[in-house]
Every structure is written in C-alpha cells, then in structure tokens.
Amino acid sequence: MPSRSAAPSDAPPGPADSRHPVPTVNGVLGYGMTVPSLDTADGFLGTFGLRRGGHGDTLGFRCDGAAFDQVSLVEAPHKRIACLAFGVDPGRLGDFARHLERSGVRLLDPPAAFAGPGLWFRDPEGVWVNLREGAPDPGRPMPDTSLNTGARHARVDRAAWAETPDAARPHRLGHVLLYVRDLGAAERFYGGVLGFRLSDRTGDILSFWHARPGDHHTLGFVRGGHVGLHHSSWEVSGLDALMIGTRDMAAAGHPGWGLGRHGLGSNLFTYVPDPWGSWIEYFTDIDQITDAWQPRDIDCPTAMWGPPMPEAFIVNSESDEPLAL
Ligand SMILES: [Fe+2]
Fold first, then answer.
1. Which CATH number describes the domain made up of 21-138+165-314?
2. What is the distance in A from the centroid of ligand 1 to the CA of 109?
3. How far apart are the first and last CA of the chain?
4. pLDDT tens for residues 119-158?
5. Residue 230 C-alpha to ligand 1 middle, in angstroms?
6. Which of 9, 31, 117, 273 is exposed most, by the fewest CB atoms within 10 A?
7. Closest CA to 272 of 235, 247, 240, 303
8. Model confidence at 4, in pLDDT bands (50, 70, 90)?
9. 46 in helix, strand or coil?
10. CA-CA distances (angstroms) from residue 18 to 21, 30, 207, 292, 316?
11. How far is Cα 48 from Cα 167, in angstroms, rounded to an integer?
12. Main-chain phi, psi angles of 246, to 5 degrees
C-alpha cells in the first residue's frame, strides 16, 4: 500500500488571484436524477428508509426530519445524474457569481424540471450545478450507540438489545460519488471553482473531497468512461441500524454488498444496487478530518475487509445519452 503526498500537480488549480480568494461551498445539499419509473423509485427509496418530500414535477425524498429534499427525481427514459446542489453561506451568493464569471463559468437559467433558487450552471461533464444559500442538513440527533469494546466499557447497566432500532431510517446524506469521463477536469472544477479540498486520492483513478471539516469525504469522482452516479451514501445511527436496513432491503428483493470497512474514509458500509444500476450506501463510523488533514495519493483497498466486491460495483451502467431537460 504505497503512500505518498498528493503531488502539487494534483492540487486543483483555481483562479490564482490573491485579490479574489476562492469562495467555498459548505457542502452537498442533495442531488437530482432522471429515472425510468417514479413508482419504482418511490418503493425502493421508501424501503431504504427515506421519506417522501415535495411532489410537484419532481418526486423528492429526504431523511426523517430534514428541512429540504435531498433527492429529487424526474421521470425520463433513462436513469441519469442530472444535478448536484451545494450550500453557500448566507450573503455569499454574490461573491460566487463574480467568482464564476472570473472563472469563465456561464450562469444559466435552471432546467425546468429541477428549477429552484440560487445560481445554476453546468460542470465539465454537463451535470447541472445549483448553488443556493443554506447548509447540508445536519440530521436529527442520533441515539447513543456506545459499544463495549476492549478496555472501554461505554455502555453500562444498559441492554443493547433493548435499544436496537426497528428500521434503518438514515439520519443524513453523507456523500455522493460520480463516475466522470475526465477526472482532472472534474477536480479542477470542483476544487478550483467551488472550493472543495482534496481528502485523498488513488492516482488518476479516483479522488475524494470535502468542503468543510467533518466527514472524510462528501464528494468523490471515479474515472468511468462517461458521467454517471456511482452511489449516494446515507449515515445511520450505528452498526445495528446499518445491518437492519441491509436485512430489510434484502427481504424486499434488494440484496447488497457488505458488511465491510472501506479503505479511504474507513466507514463501515453496506451497498444496495438501485433498480437502474447505481448503488446506495448505508454508512456509519466514517473518519472525521480537520484543516490539519494532509491528503495522500495512496493505492488503498476499496474494502479493508468484507465479502468479495461484486463486479457490477465498478461498472458504469448509466446511459451516456445527452441529458435532455
Ligand atoms: Fe461511499
């Protein structure tokens, strides 16, 4: 597992102008997709543990208690990642508009299907990007799921079985991983234009990014021929909830991959294939990082342990037809 510092050339170039520091988004608010059947999506995401939100032209889903939809779906012939929404601190949209102009990014009218407030433009792969005032939903408070491990007995005079949740019910959207045709272009855009910071990378294959201290990664890219959603990932309250969700998805006809512990990010995971070839992840126990974190370029296993990885996990099955919205 050779490790080296992420080479300076890997650093995303932004407009290197000290008079105009690069503003930064504060995280991922959600994503939008087209799917062939909203009814199928409703059943799948409902079983996964998300709650139905807004329902106009789009079908929305969110974690219990979230203030806004974190997934927006529109029916279309093919499954396609359509848009990503990022939060901007209050009062900073104007700074971003000027920064985007200096960066040569053209602001556009929003696509009718996903129209909403804020700034809209496209990334190098053609995915719509929406910047709007707000921040990622922090998730409702999680119960204390302390484990008695090793010499540390954090749960005393409490029976774990009596506190076992009855369903997964994700607390928050953790991260989104996209296949991209041009990894370098994606990195220059999301790093140099939106202000994401590199967390870790594996050569020219994949890279993980964060916007603020917290989870090891909230956004990631993997080279994949053309753009596509690899997976979205949702935090649950602990290992019990993770395995209960996995059990319930399998019982509903959606067996997954896991349990395992990832390499980069270290989260415990199980993945479930969605009805259209992407994946959706339950996670818990992801590495937390601060501004002191130093990114590495490291050939780290996808999973430190767990069942063999399904071949389909690294196949981009998303249609590469142009996104028509
Ligand atoms: Fe993930």
1. 3.10.180.10
2. 31
3. 43
4. 999 999 999 999 999 999 999 998 877 889 888 898 999 9
5. 9
6. 9
7. 247
8. low
9. helix
10. 6, 31, 26, 22, 39
11. 9
12. -65, -45
Ligand 1 centroid distance, CA of 173 (Å):
11
What are the structural domain ranges in the chain? 21-138+165-314
How many Å lie between the centroid of ligand 1 and the Cα of residue 219?
Answer: 9
* Residue corresponding to tokens 């949702």: 234
CA dist 163 and 178 (Å) reads 36
The pair of three-digit structure tokens given for residue 111, joined into one six-digit string? 């696509």
The percentage of residues in the chain with a pLDDT greater than 90, rounded to a whole number, is 84
> Percentage of residues in the chain with pLDDT exceeding 70?
94
Separation of CA 268 and ligand 1 centre (Å): 9
- What is the distance in A from the centroid of ligand 1 to the CA of 283? 8
C-alpha 235 – ligand 1 centre gap (Å):
10
Ligand 1 center–CA 305 separation, angstroms? 15
Q: Record the tokens describing residue 63, joined without a space.
A: 């974690």
CA of 177 to the centre of ligand 1 (A): 7
Q: What is the DSSP letter of 99?
A: H
* 256 touches 239 (CB < 8 A): no
Which residues have CB less than 5 Å away from ligand 1 (the ion)? 233, 281
- 150's tokens: 């090793």
Per residue in 18-50, pLDDT tens?
666 778 999 999 999 999 999 999 999 999 999
Ordered DSSP codes for 253-276? T---EEEEEESTT--EEEEEE-TT
What spacing in Å lies between the alpha carbon of 31 and ligand 1's midpoint? 15
